[in-house]
């Protein structure tokens, strides 16, 4: 079996209902995406009412923004809102054809969530993980049906980022793999098949870049200057602004996974640690000038 081979579209399974484990930053963006693009009921499950309600409120607010901008008709907005629900009951995910987890980025937490899900799901339900860097095979190990587990890694902000990394784990069957591609296409995103390796492709590179930029911070350059210095490279946003978007804690988890697996190319970063423990170090970032107002290179001429 080619671990990163093309899927067989004929064996993709229908997805008529989606469950999401978690209702946080990525989970709520995914709920909106699935409801909007796939027009199927989506239920998010989190541990308490506050989190569950917050996820639902995020969806309502984003829909309202799209309606206000004229991107969505009001009726369509109402329809999307009515497709998304949130709950604290695990059993409410039981009718889903696909459940994607977007919980805390720690292997044991995700394994626990998958094991718990198996107690309420039918054996056919596909279990996807939105992990940034962890081994999908390790996440599936020990489950009753590891063949249903697949990686489906969306990027933040979900509505804007066109890429999804699809990960075939050691036991993923053809149906789960093909369904992951079908879901990605239905969401109008581009799937890339990547190996089940630490950080897959994007985070392996991105975290290396962020690590080097954090190094310049430790050498004494300030955050805003380092961020701005890299605009001319053509990145859509400066690396520190991106770090703020992704969340320093998430970046820290990805860095830890890469260091544990790939070693000293991914050193610990006091600068990142300070950002995780002391949010106050964050600054208001200037946005990189858009294509309409390109970066001023006159000084270099
Ligand atoms: N969340 C949601 N939507 C956002 C946003 C945000 N943080 N920032 C901007 N947007 C939306 C805007 O509302 C706007 O929507 P509209 O077209 O409906 O009006 C659209 O994006 C374009 O925004 P702007 O014109 O203001 O700004 P840009 O042209 O600079 O685009 C961007 C914003 C798309 C966020 C762009 O800066 C970008 O691509 N940044 C890089 C993001 C990135 O690399 N993400 C990957 C992170 S790594 C990751 O997620 C992996 C994980 O595993 C760690």
Structure description:
It is a single chain. With 301 residues, the protein is an alpha/beta fold. The chain folds into 2 domains: 9-194, Rossmann fold; 202-289, N-(1-d-carboxylethyl)-l-norvaline Dehydrogenase, domain 2 (Orthogonal Bundle). The chain is built from 11 helices and 8 strands. It has helices spanning 25-38, 49-68, 74-83, 107-118, 136-140, 174-186, 202-218, 223-229, 239-246, 248-262, 270-277, and strands at 18-21, 42-45, 84-87, 98-101, 126-129, 149-154, 163-168, 190-194. It has an 8-stranded mixed β-sheet, with helices on both faces. β1, α1 and β2 form a beta-alpha-beta unit. α1 (25-38) packs across α2 (49-68), α9 (239-246) crosses α10 and α10 (248-262) packs antiparallel against α11. The longest helix is centred in the first third of the chain and has 20 residues, at 49-68. 3-hydroxybutanoyl-coenzyme A (3HC) binds next to α7, α9 and α10. Belongs to the 3-hydroxyacyl-CoA dehydrogenase family. In the central section; belongs to the 3-hydroxyacyl-CoA dehydrogenase family. Residues 18-196 form the 3-hydroxyacyl-CoA dehydrogenase NAD binding domain. This is Enoyl-CoA hydratase/isomerase family protein. Residues 199-277 form the 3-hydroxyacyl-CoA dehydrogenase C-terminal domain.
List the helices and strands and how they pair.
Blueprint: E1 18-21, H1 25-38, E2 42-45, H2 49-68, H3 74-83, E3 84-87, E4 98-101, H4 107-118, E5 126-129, H5 136-140, E6 149-154, E7 163-168, H6 174-186, E8 190-194, H7 202-218, H8 223-229, H9 239-246, H10 248-262, H11 270-277
Parallel strand pairs: 1-2, 1-4, 2-3, 4-5, 5-6, 7-8
Antiparallel strand pairs: 6-7
Helix pairs in contact: 1-2, 2-3, 7-10, 9-10, 10-11
